[in-house]
Amino acid sequence: MKPENYAIDVFLGHDRFQQFMHCYQQNKVFKCQFDAAAAEILTPAELEEIINTRRLSFPRCRLVRSGKPLAPAEYNERSHSAMGEGIIKLIPNV
């Protein structure tokens, strides 16, 4: 997907974006299915880049294997930032 298509309204389309906004305003979880294959939405390389460059500790990132949620301790580790502060980061090889 090209960077200019990353805006959430473009990504979701008009109807799904309206549903998303309704859920957001109601503080509810938004779920939907996409017509495109997952690789067309986010390539493995793009996913790896996100994992390697963002601090996505639980609950921002929740991983699932075979339909069952993994315990956060299985995919998070304590580390230190460049400034020496303690952080929790994803273990990319889970």
Short description:
The protein has 94 residues and is an alpha+beta fold. It is built from four helices and four strands, in the order ααααββββ.
Q: Which key phrases capture this entry?
A:
94 residues, 4 helices, single chain, two-stranded antiparallel ribbon, alpha+beta
The secondary-structure element order is HHHHEEEE
What is Rg?
16 Å
Low-confidence stretches: none
Mean pLDDT: 78
Q: Can you summarize the main beta sheet?
A: 2 strands, antiparallel
Please give the oligomerization state of what you see: single chain
- Distance from N terminus to C terminus (CA atoms, Å) equals 26 Å
The secondary-structure class comes to alpha+beta
Strand order of the largest sheet: 1-2
Number of strands: 4
Share of helix, binned: 25-40%
What is the 3D shape?
globular
**What is the number of helical segments per DSSP (H or I, 4+ residues)?**
4
Strand content: 5-15%
Overview of the molecule:
This protein is an alpha+beta fold. The protein is built from four helices and four strands, in the order ααααββββ. The strands form two sheets. A two-stranded antiparallel ribbon has the order 1-2. A two-stranded antiparallel ribbon has the order 3-4. The two termini are 26 Å apart. The mean pLDDT is 78.
What is the fold's blueprint, element by element?
Layout: H1 8-12, H2 14-25, H3 38-41, H4 44-53, E1 64-65, E2 68-69, E3 76-80, E4 86-90
Antiparallel strand pairs: 1-2, 3-4
